[in-house]
Write a structure and sequence with these properties.
By secondary structure, the protein is of the alpha+beta class. The chain is built from two helices and seven strands. It has a domain at 52-167: Pleckstrin-homology domain (PH domain)/Phosphotyrosine-binding domain (PTB) (PH-domain like). Helix content is 49%, strand content 26%. It is found in: Nucleus, Nuclear pore complex.
Length: 253
């Protein structure tokens, strides 16, 4: 009885093995074409850095000082960049987290920005800035730590170079503003003389007009007197002539 059951079980096991071998594995590529369920269109992704040139690009870890808790809090690990705008020349510091690309820091590098070594650690430095990473302008105190002393020194030197360049721009603007103010003052001082000259010229023209009008009046008066005088001279002669004519008529009578 046992001998008849063993071949049956053996045959069944062989059939199961054959069916298992013939079935494709879960990750096996059968070669059948697979159509995508949804077709996605390519979308251009902008980072806001397209109009800027990269001056510096270093890996680092950023911390932000929490005034409420009076402690340093990690802001993220990623890449810190110094970006210069191609048109206006402004430079900003931008740092993003490595995996999520979330912005950790985003602020301008101004002429007043200075970096200091943090707690005697040559790989880290501290600075203050008006940051816009959270969507609103806030005064922040940052601490950044680099993998090496060389990278930290490169970062500090580049920030110092940019700050000096920004200060020169400020000085040039102040000089230009002072020059414009000076020229404006000189122009204002010259204007009264011009007004006086124009007033004198206007008075001279007015006087000429008045003199001309007076001359015309005198000329008209002279003409009038001349006419009246002529009329008076003519009248006696006419009376005398008429009297002589009467006398002649009487004599003839």
């Amino acid at each position: 009885m046992a001998s008849s059951a063993e071949p049956t079980l053996q045959k069944k096991d062989e059939e199961e093995e054959d069916s298992t071998e013939n079935q494709p594995a879960e990750d096996e590529d059968t070669g059948a074409p697979v159509a995508p369920i949804v077709r996605l269109q390519e979308v251009a992704v902008t980072t806001g850095e397209e109009d800027e040139d990269v001056l510096l690009d270093l890996k680092a870890k950023l911390y932000r000082f929490d005034n409420g808790g009076n402690q340093w809090k990690e802001r993220g690990v990623g890449t810190v960049k110094l970006l210069k705008h191609k048109e206006n020349g402004k430079v900003r510091l931008v740092m993003r987290q490595s995996k999520t690309l979330k912005i950790c820091a985003n602020h301008l590098v101004l002429s007043t920005m200075t970096l200091q070594e943090h707690a005697g650690n040559e790989k880290s430095c501290v600075w203050h800035a008006a940051d816009f990473a959270d969507g609103e302008l806030k005064q922040e105190t940052f601490c950044i730590r680099f993998p090496s002393i060389e990278n930290c020194k490169t970062f500090k030197d580049k920030i110092g170079e940019i700050a000096e360049a920004q200060q020169r721009k400020v000085d040039d603007k102040d000089t230009a503003s002072e020059l414009i103010d000076k020229l404006s003052v000189e122009s204002k001082e010259d204007k009264p003389e011009d007004k006086g000259a124009s007033a004198t010229s206007a008075e001279a023209q007015q006087k000429k007009v008045e003199d001309s009008e007076e001359a015309n009046s005198v000329s008209k008066l002279i003409e009038k007197l001349s006419v009246e005088s002529k009329e008076e001279e003519d009248k006696p002669e006419d009376k005398g002539a008429s009297a002589t004519s009467v006398e002649v008529k009487k004599g003839s009578v």
